[in-house]
Amino acid sequence: MALLEIDGLSKSFGGVTAIADLRFEVPKGQVYSVIGPNGAGKTTLFNMLSGIYRPDEGSIRFQEREITGLQPHKVAAMGLSRTFQNLQMFFNMSVLDNVMVGCHLRTRSGLFRAALRLPGIVREEREANRLAREELTFCDLERFVDLEAGALPYGVLKRLEIARALAVGPQLLLMDEPAAGLNDTETAEMQRLIRRICERGITVLLVEHDMGLVMRVSDRILVLDYGSRLAEGTPSEIQNDRRVIEAYLGGEVQYAV
Amino acid sequence: MKRLRGLFLLALLVVVLPILFPDNYYVTVVAVSAALHAILAVGLNLLMGYAGLISLGHAAFFGVGAYTSAIITTRFDLNPWLAMAAGILLTGCIAFIMARPILRLKGHYLAMATLGLGMIVQIVLVQAEGLTGGPDGLGGIPPLSLFGWEVDSDLRWYMVMSTVMLLVVWLALNLIDSRSGRALRALHGSEVAAEMMGIDTTATKTGVFVIAAISASLAGSLFAHQQAFISPDSFSFFFSIELVTMVVLGGMASTFGAVFGAFVLTFLPELLVVFEDYEVMIFGAILMLMMIFLPQGLFVGLQGLLRRLLQQRAPARLPAPAEEDKHGAA
Fold first, then answer.
1. CB B324 to CB A89 under 8 A?
2. Are A135 and A163 in contact (CB under 8 A)?
3. FRET label pair with A164: which of A139, A178, A210, B281, CA 20 to 30 Å apart?
């Protein structure tokens, strides 16, 4: 059964079509990648899936429930989390606090209860702290726990965004260009991290420009061109697809899987 | 109790000051208004410093609280505590209703909208003469009393005002160091990421706006009973600006910074009186110099300076950055 079902999805901005009548399904427990040239509509797609944009038409079903047009925090509550292409860190907070914000949905005290520090708050804080540290360790960030987010180098921040998104406890994780700006060592590490996330049973929907990474890490790939589906299949199918090679990969590029 | 160390220090100061300097004008008079300002600044700091939402009309909520207390106690002869609760309820409702349309705005636009809100309230206070006494103000506001203990001397007001200040600081510290507090700070850091972490940003903004308004209303009620007479002048645009200055001067996103800012901005003009005609000029120059040399704010800046000095003595061990991180720095 597909975890995410997209049907007839369309979005345009002032007459410019970003996504046109798009249909695809993301199977549970896989790494599913969306590729395509700049402007193909990948980030627009992510923004619709996560509730930031409202689609003009079409439906998004997640875990067999309609989530089209829901606000982002409601989408998050249903188990969909994401990272951002341009970092959206909370730079005014510590590394630990950043990830503890991710635990927001797993704890429930409100403004007034917190202000009076009623019983239960301390235990809840400890629980959030533990969860956050677990995710930091999972992303190999435990040595940065007490630092301010603003003090971290770019490559580490990329992983911190992932730790924060994992703290939400998602079923589906949308990753928007996690390897952008990373060097080869860091990219290899990112690849391992993506596979480890998938092994935890979290389905990953990936947008990435690094073709090598996409081909190595993905179970299935969707190729977008001008907001519509050009091809879909396994990495080897995509690499041998004539339309994809002509339109996107450039005819002669071959990748070892 | 590392978390509340600062609060205990502040409480100690509050207790020791009147013992060391009994009947001192600066302690029993100036410190009382400083404590009042601190209550206002701590509330505003939750909104401005932590959630990153500016308000140039905070004096409006202060005014609504003060006038509700004044009107209810003088016109209807009701208990001051009941009046205070009514003020809080009324201000909370106004803030709740205004929050949605106003907090959709950001940056300069939000500043303009809150500025407008502040001006509307002041105009109402001046124009609704039948209710508020108009520009002449309202007098004869009875003092507070607590189980027969009349708050009628400067020292007693010192006790009440500083107790409420400590209470408000405690509440603010609790709030910031919690799930909701993190939600506030996250909102400031990145609204879209905060939403994606499951934070209902609209509800969070509304909540903090109401809390800031309520604390201002509480301060307003105390102010009305302490002064026994109030007029619209105390709730003008200029007072809103003064409150913003306290928060910024002390250091944004620091509760003790807000308290510190309130104390500095209350004491400084009193101390500069000796310069007579040049008082305001020197005051302005000091503010400018502070912001140039300690842009993170007085309290936060000095704290950082102190920490650096201590670190030079005993260099703290920083986590060793791994190989890949050095390459990763972009």
1. no
2. yes
3. A210
